[in-house]
Amino acid sequence: MQLSDSREIAAPRPEVWANLLSAETLKGCVPGCQEMTGSAAEGFEAVVVQKVGPVKATFKGAVTISDVVDGESLTLTGEGKGGAAGFAKGGAKVKLSDGDNGATRLEYDVEAKVGGKLAQLGSRIIDGFAKKMADQFFERFQQSVEGPVEETVAERDESSQDGDGEAKKKGWLGRVLGSKKDK
Amino acid sequence: MPKDSGIGASPKRREDIRFLTGTGNYTDDININGQTYAWFIRSDVAHGTINSIDASAAEAMEGVLKVFTSADFAEAGGIPCGWEVTDRHGQPMQEPKHPILAEGKVRHVGDPIAVVVAETLEQARDAAEAVEIDIDELEAVIDMKAAVAEGATKVHDDLTSNLCYDWGFVEENREAVDEAIKSAAHVTTLELVNNRVVANPMEPRVAVGDYNRAGDEHTLYTTSQNPHVIRLLMGAFVLSIPEHKLRVVAPDVGGGFGAKIYHYAEEAFVTYAAKVLNRPVKWTSSRSEAFISDAHGRDHVTKIELAMDENHKFTAVRTDTYANMGAYLSTFAPSVPTWLHGTLMAGNYITPLIYVNVKAVFTNTVPVDAYRGAGRPEATFQLERVIDKAARELGMDPVELRRKNFIQPDQFPYDTPVAVTYDTGNYDATMDKALEVADYAGFEARRAESEARGKLRGIGVAHYIEACGIAPSNLVGQLGARAGLYESATVRVNATGSISVFTGSHSHGQGHETTFAQVVSEMIGVDASQIDIVHGDTSKVPMGMGTYGSRSIAVGGSAMVRATEKIINKAKKIAAHLMEASEADIELKDGAFSVAGTDKSVAWGDVTLAAYVPHNYPLEDIEPGLEESAFYDPANFTYPSGAYICELEVDPETGVIDMLNFTAADDFGNVINPMIVEGQVHGGLAQGIGQALMEACIYDENGQLLSGSFMDYTMPRADDMPMMNVDHSCQTPCTHNPLGVKGCGEAGAIGSPPAVVNAVIDALHRAGHKVEHIDMPVSPARVWKAMHG
């Protein structure tokens, strides 16, 4: 399955870029991530717990960063093995460009693939699942880059939709102002 | 007045008492003291190189006895293939090794890599998670035509390509067929898919291995349709265990449909592991596992051309088929698209020239083998679909076009141009019967009524023939079979007159215990309750080729008749002695022997007792005891045939099909138990209609089976089935077996798919939608798309 989307992040490109290469940021952004170690250069090791339809599993795997064009684009590739549950593989081509008002435009093309029991039992729901995973990842990434307020909001994004929007708006404005100051 | 016992009666199935009350003895019910549990670790990629397997952590876990990999089977042979097909150029098929556990590479999702054996199933399962397997995924080949394209990734590196064989039949007719098609007045062409299906018997596969060190004796309990064949294949080719040290038991088996014919790796594994560990080892398939380890069925892609002269007489048939073998050759896989398919391409019709080309292809998918009908449904589907299309093109009634080309009753025995000789049949009779039962003449009124409700009503006709009662050994030997296809029976009469019949046929739902007893009861005249049918155990039954190819009553039943005849002959000698009469004057009727023309008689029990207490006995002429065996090798296949009519409605808004009724008028020759035959036809129809409307294996481009559970793989349910009108009053008895029986197990699955699809196309055409074909399963989405472009 493939999907493409984009979002505006209220932060300057160098900051967004640095976050893309940060194990700490990625750990916070990969939905269900329990552990994430390593570095952008060496690759990351990750443990992710996810439930896909009827199959819940702990995926152990690696995340690598490749095709790096400094400050502009890179490819994030992840592969997780879930034992009897099968495996999940995914990749995201991420491209950064200058957005409006000093924000950064982040475009991504995501490809996801599952195998084994996940494919056998969960194929009907896998597209929706992959979209949800990608949306959550970039949502969290955006919030992580834009500021700590949003991180806490992200924790309760389902219970308070309005608050979420409100907080995001503020954060975004703050960031834009902040980045203007930086300039 | 219908009979209440013997041949032609419909007593209730005696085996149902245990099946319906939960007292059956299935393989999973067998638990042996000290039993351990095997958990198979299977590939989750369709194609890959195994870099390493590290089982050290798993082997250290509590309860784990051992983790097996291919290294443990270095001495064992591969899983053998039972049929060698010779290609168009006289070369043998390409035959890859099929290891018990993957050696270096995995070739389909579900391919077993390693097995954990532990004290409990839970421990085995947990430890399996700790086995570290490093696999580099390789590109998978899934599509058959892509698999044989230049430069395609190879499923087996040591083969020259993914082409197993390129088979031509009848090769000598190739040019003549081309010429006939070129010069024909009319040629109808159709391209179609015979969809891949999973058999899904209610009982998944199970295997329990046991080993007795004292006697070096192996026992395998397995869900098999043919325990002797498993003993032969596994003993001789895989594990090198001689027959006298290997017992194979297939107790109650909950359905097979073909998928339990084959010798599977799990059987060899538990048998071998039980010896290595000196503990019984049990494996029970989960439903998920069954989807990716039971042999699948069908999976043909075909182009068929039907040539006719100006009088609408068929002049030639040419077919071009790709048949999926999957990743390895399952036991009988090569025979299915060839000898069980090409030989049926004449159908019920006079067609002087036929050429069938089949390319069998390896792909990174689960192996494909025989499934209820095996090759014959594929032949029937394409032929009956193309005839329907031809009738439409010619503006003819499809029934009339068929009748015009039927082989006539006075032409039997009829030599087809595709190597088989039909012994009997009367196709107009079955067609007449089906039209009558289905009220074909009244269709237009029913259609108008449907139309008034906004529904598109259609009627589809198909006529099938099949070759079953498999099979003359010398013939199949010439065609590449590596086994004989006779059957055996032993009839043991006990001292007090009760009878145990040991048959090589295996019953996994067919009701042999009832029908076989009816036959012996009829022959001897003792009550069926005095007759026991024993099957499924190599230590009890002398030899058996098992049950498939609708062969049980035709071949196994014939062996039983021959053995019973020997019993009767011997019993008559004893009776003659007891009554001091000439053996030639002895008559057996209703369980008593009498001297013709006198009132002298002795009861069955007097004779059987004399055989075992031979105080007054012709010891100088015959031995004591009353037990006889017979092997029966059929002189020909039997050829059931029938006319099937499907009537349905299509909802034009949604494409949803409402099956209204289905008529099956079959000619099975003589019928032993009409109720059981009707049930067999019902089951066959359910599977045929399921294939036509619902069932499909969907592989993605990476070889993942997406329809791998009952959430996505649509099994037909009772409420998906229409009213079924089953008639078997048209009977042209088989000419070469003693009971005059044909076979009824597969017929329903053979004749029904084309009748269903013909009915859908008919409904659409009558409503002005010029749709020529919809591939199975004919889902609402496909119907709607066909209607709306």
UniProtKB/TrEMBL annotation, chain A:
Pfam families registered for this protein in UniProt: COXG
Compositionally biased intervals (Basic and acidic residues): 153-169
Domain of life per record: Bacteria
InterPro entries attached to this UniProt entry: CO_DH_gsu, START-like_dom_sf
Disordered: annotated span: 148-183
Protein name (database record): Carbon monoxide dehydrogenase subunit G
Source organism of this protein record: Ruegeria spongiae
From TrEMBL, chain B:
Organismal lineage: Bacteria, Pseudomonadati, Pseudomonadota, Alphaproteobacteria, Rhodobacterales
SUPFAM superfamilies xref list: CO dehydrogenase molybdoprotein N-domain-like (SSF54665), Molybdenum cofactor-binding domain (SSF56003)
Protein name: Xanthine dehydrogenase family protein molybdopterin-binding subunit
Gene3D superfamilies documented for this protein: Aldehyde oxidase/xanthine dehydrogenase, a/b hammerhead, Aldehyde oxidase/xanthine dehydrogenase, molybdopterin binding domain
PANTHER family, alphabetized: ALDEHYDE OXIDASE 1-RELATED (PTHR11908:SF132), XANTHINE DEHYDROGENASE (PTHR11908)
Domain Aldehyde oxidase/xanthine dehydrogenase a/b hammerhead: 21-139
Pfam families per the UniProt record, alphabetical: Ald_Xan_dh_C, MoCoBD_1, MoCoBD_2
InterPro entries named among the record's database cross-references: Ald_Oxase/Xan_DH_a/b, Ald_Oxase/Xan_DH_a/b_sf, Ald_Oxase/xanthine_DH-like, AldOxase/xan_DH_MoCoBD1, AldOxase/xan_DH_MoCoBD2, AldOxase/xan_DH_Mopterin-bd_sf
Keywords (A to Z) from UniProt: Molybdenum, Oxidoreductase
Source species: Ruegeria spongiae
